[in-house]
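Support request, please re-run this one:
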Amino acid sequence: MTDLGDELRRHLAAHEMSLTSAARQAGCSKGYLSNVAQGRKALTPRVAAGLDRLFGTGGTFAVHTLNAVPGARSPTAETSHPEDGQSKPAGTSRYGRPLRNGGQRAGARQESPPPAWAATTAAAKLDASRLWGHDLDTGGTPAGAATDVAGVILSWLTALPDGTAASAAGGAEVSGHDVRRVRAVRAWLKDLDNAHGGGVAFPLAAAHLRSEIAPLLNGSYGETMGNALLAATAETELDSGWFAYDAGDHRLARLYFIHALRIAHAAGSRLLGARIICALSHQALHVGQVSLSVDLARAARAGAGPEATPRASAMLAAMEAMAHAGAGDAARSGQALDDAERALARATADDGDPAWLDFDEGGLLGHTARAHRDLAAAGLTQPGHARQTAERSIELCRAGHGRTRAQRNAILASTCVQAGDIDQAAAIGELIIADAWDLQSRHVQDDIAALVASIRPARSSSAGTFTDQAREFLAARRRPAAPGVA
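Re-run finished. Output below.
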């Protein structure tokens, strides 16, 4: 078996997945994938991208396409398996998290039940103490079954208010200074994430939750202070979920999002809950659970209620537009984008938007560019509009938001590939890599690997510099960390 075969075998074992299942989800036949593992056929960029997405490996398999097996035959046995938007990602039959050893999978799993809606605020606090003890799995994990999320969202839509948020647990009394400190640290962590990625921010956020927020939750506070503390906790958990998502640990990210949703409900904030469901929709779209993404986006808009300011309404509508585009529904995507544009045009500084709501014109353009890119990929529109919109979104990218810039450039590069402008796509790819060196972001790594996979078939000599840089970057990100280094 080749090095590629050994790599594939390790990931199959870690995810407890059969070769047949992996082939189906990566979009090829079992026989072809077996031949690739044995070195009898070359791994194509398309299947490599599918495997990297399946296992959350951030370009590990794409690197092997850059070093194709000498003499390997063309993969004529590949069989396409179009996504129906409802296929489960790898490992959805198991809900436990893997054991870790220096960031590497140990192959065993600890069994635990799927996420559930805690019956009371007290039960949700107990769940927090367990959740916040999990480390980030740098090998990446699948998100889990769509049905896990559906039940929780139904509970959010129908649950009655928890009642008083006051606590007399006997701990120190919580003050407004404590809540402001929690929110100040959250903002600092978010800035760190924007500049350097979720892989850097998550360990610090988890430590903050355990050492700072957990004692506060077990303190004493009245109704008003309790609501403020619970809301600040949910905001921090929401961001922590984004960090884990960006780092490739989709299972942990989903658990954080769902728990944040429960805490936001305890705080009595429907708008924050809708924002969290919007994050779940975004993740579902990323991992290929397109039907779930649409349902979540629609639930977020329906459940936000009168708390939704124009800016919030724009954000929720823009997410629904992306979800519909992923599902190939151009009409509904266009309608949602129109809703978002009209809502954002009504937004003012006097609307009372919460501090965590930072959706602006650049964000709307970024969502619009992705929606139009996905529709163009499905042959439902031309890539020109997506390209122009992506260019404008990059111009509006905020200083210090290196990951956002890299992701918007990835959208722009993919629209260039759609238009046949391979040289420009490769030039933009070099900009993405320049930003990526400062990031610990598996999301951006996946974007680079996908761009390599889309450019390589063109065999453009002028794209060689980008391809070489991508090989160097992805290989460096595959190296295990030194002992004691997170």
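The two ends are 31 Å apart (CA to CA). Residues 66-112, 481-486 have pLDDT under 50 and may be disordered.
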